[in-house]
TrEMBL record:
Name recorded for this polypeptide: Glutathione transferase
GO molecular function: glutathione transferase activity
The organism of origin for this protein: Owenia fusiformis
Entry-linked SUPFAM superfamilies: GST C-terminal domain-like (SSF47616)
Top-level taxonomic group: Eukaryota
Coiled coil: none
Gene3D superfamilies linked to this entry: 1.20.1050.10, Glutaredoxin
Domain called GST C-terminal: residue spans: 36-155
Amino acid sequence: TFGQLPYLTGPNGLEIAECYAILRYFGRKLNLYGNNDIEAAKIDMLLERENQTITEIFKSLFVKQDNSARIESTKICDTLVIFQKLLEKNNKGEGYFVGDKVSIADYAMLDLLDACISLSSTMLDAYPTLKAFYNRMASREKIAACKATEKYKSFYIAGNLGLK
C-alpha cells in the first residue's frame, strides 16, 4: 500500500500495511484486544505511548552518542516510571497491563523492554515490576523458544539496538 514493509496479505483480498494496524487486526482476530471497549481503549493508549517511545529510541540511533546519552535524550526512564505505575494499577502488577489476560499491549511492551535491555542490560533493575513482567512474558513458551534461536540472538538493527 505504501511501498514498504510491514505488509500483510490474506484471504478475501486482505491487504494491511503498518505494524500497529497489523497488530490491532490480529488483536481483534485472536481475542487479544481486551474484554470490552474500556479495556480496548486502555490497550490503544498503551500502544500509542509505546509506539512514541520506541520511535524516539529508533530516531536516537541516528545520532552519534553513547547509550547512556541515548537513554537520557529519549527520556526513556521517565516513561518507564509511568509504565510501571500503569502495570501496578492492574492486579498490583502481577499479571498484565490491561485486564486478566495477555493482550497485544503486553506484546508491544515486551518489544519496548527488549529495546531498553539492548541499550542497557541493567536498565530494568530500577523498575522491579516491569522487570518481573518482562521475565514472565519472555518466558512464555513460544517467545522463549524464539529467543533461544541463533537467528534471534544474532539479530541486528541499527546502532547496537538488537545486540544482546
